[in-house]
Amino acid sequence: GEPVEAASDGHPGLQRGQVENAEEEERERKREAIRRRIAQAKLEEKIHKEVERLQLENSEDGRRDSGHMNHAAGRGSAGHHSVEDKEPQERGVYDEEQTYRTTYNRLPLPTHEAGTEEGITYKTFSLEEEMAEIVALIDKDLSEPYSIFTYRYFIYNWPQHTHMAMHNGKCCGVVVCKLEQHRDYFRGYIAMLAVDSDLRGKGIGTCLVGKAIRSMRAEGCEEVVLETECSNTGALRLYENLGFFRDKRLLRYYLNGGDAFRLKLWFPGVGYYA
Fold first, then answer.
1. What CA–CA distance (Å, rounded) separates 109 from 274?
2. 209-241: per-residue pLDDT in tens?
3. What angle separates helix 130-139 from helix 148-157, to the nearest 10 degrees?
4. Which pLDDT score is estimated for 69?
5. What is the pLDDT of residues 53-68, one digit of tens each?
């Protein structure tokens, strides 16, 4: 028989249809893993809320009981309660939980949509014709433009994590992300962020990144990473104000010889972060 033609995307011995099926199976495996993680996160959040409710009820019951005891015993006995008579939280039973809440405050994400007073609206990618607008907006600021295949890889596979800012019916800002399993946890990656130069300084970029973090966190994301040029002080300030920290410096990361910082955002725990 005739030899099997090698597929053009680097899978020798497999015909294109087989390659596409294998890739789709791999994507479905990842989606199923994410669905399982979402279900687990929701269950843990439900348990966490129930524990909080029970703790609150116990605390209120304890205060009522304490009030009755103090009233019956009178003022003279008020200072003679042992440490065991105090509420469990006062004794330090929940000290670890209290330390957790003190140490890991909610991330400083924006609570409003920037630019709405000027007619800015926000959406996720949904229409094929939006691709050209996204490419044009991002390419304006890149010294090393991406190929169309790079855009398609991110946006077609994770459209729910491509958040767009719209002004007068046109895309004026966009953040492009992906969410995949990394080792034994799920890692989000911010691949691209761009805002039209005429609308910068209004918080649109911060709002877009905040929306991306929330959508990835909702699917079980436990860490977000990105790279940005060391010289890009505006981007560094934006991300660091959102809780990212500089994980490492990547020497000569870009084709122009420039260095990059890898930035990371960690989510410490389950019952955190709306």
1. 10
2. 999 999 998 888 889 999 999 999 999 999 999
3. 120
4. 52
5. 888 888 776 666 655 5
Q: Which residues of the chain fall below pLDDT 50?
A: 1-10, 73, 75-105, 270-274
On the CB side of 104, CA atoms within 13 Å amount to 14
The residue among 24, 29, 39 whose CA lies nearest residue 219 is 39
Residue with tokens 């949509």: 113
The amino acid that residue 13 corresponds to is G
Return the amino acid letter for 36: R
Would you say the pTM of this structure is higher than 0.70? no
